[in-house]
Design goal:
Blueprint (H helix, E strand, L loop, with lengths): L11 H20 L10 E6 L5 H12 L3 E5 L12 H9 L4 E5 L3 H10 L4 E3 L7 H15 L6 E5 L4 H13 L2 E5 L8 H5 L5 E4 L2 H5 L4 E4 L11 H7 L7 H6 L5 E4 L11 H4 L6 H20 L3
Parallel strand pairs: 1-2, 1-3, 3-4, 5-6, 5-8, 6-7, 8-9
Helix pairs in contact: 1-5, 1-12, 2-12, 3-4, 5-6, 5-12
Bound molecules: phosphoric acid mono(formamide)ester (CP) and norvaline.
The site of phosphoric acid mono(formamide)ester has 8 residues, from helix 2.
Amino acid sequence: MRHFLTLKDFTATELKQLINRAIELKHIQKSGEIYQPLKNKVLAMIFDKSSTRTRVSFESAMIQFGGGAIFLSPNDTQLGRGEPVEDSARVISSMVDAVMIRTFEHAMVERFAEYSSVPVINALTDDYHPCQLLADMQTYVEHRGSIEGKTVAWIGDGNNMCHSYINAAEQFGFNLNIATPVGYEPKADIVSASTADISLCHDMKTAVKNTDLIVTDVWASMGQEEEQKKREHAFADFQVDNDVMTLANSDALFMHCLPAHRGEEVSADVIDGGQSVVWDEAENRLHAQKALLEFLCVSD
Ligand code: CP
Ligand code: NVA
């Protein structure tokens, strides 16, 4: 049994195969072919934070695959009233075929996985968002081919998305330039654990020069709402606008995991412009997670 808590839970080869499979599954879906490898299977979806894309993509994936999904919010479960994670993991996993969790502390998904009898998928923690990276990598491959040897610029907060880009740089073999305000760098242990070519700086313009993909994210993530004002001040020089895009390679793409704040981390003309692939990126959550569910839940 395998879990998907970070990109490092899979080998580079497995991840590449998963991206290729996601592209195939997208074609199958678009052709109208019915493909139901998860008939009668159930995915439990534990959401301690809000979601649009993650919930809709996982739930649709399970329905289209012939199974079903159960949405569990802390308002309605005993987990939300303090039932231990270990007990919840044993009970929930005894009734379903896989569990997807979106929560705060990364240690919670690790603890759940330890006591779960079925695969556990990390659908975002304070530290990582690996499912989003599957969709991002699929999107890059579809538009530009292999990302190996390319250079990606991460602009903004050294947050969960940034940490998953650090993991992806190693697994998919791209170079990563990270530009953050002082004090908002990615966690040092995650950077130092990576064998990828990663450079950190505090100047967005230096980071984007000659890059193939520019990625940003909100300045205040879920759980940091009370820091919004302070962060608006700290991140004022970190908006990806057209001037920034012109410093990158002429065929560079723009990605954002969404939800986005136009006028903060990205200008409207960039996110709604010709280099932006954010809508494909969002749709690919469905196809990439189908490949992931198939990998984890279908035995050969
Ligand atoms: N990108 C992403 O995970 O979106 P949601 O928060 O809407 O799920
Ligand atoms: N960094 C953001 C990503 C949202 C999908 C957050 O954690 O809120």
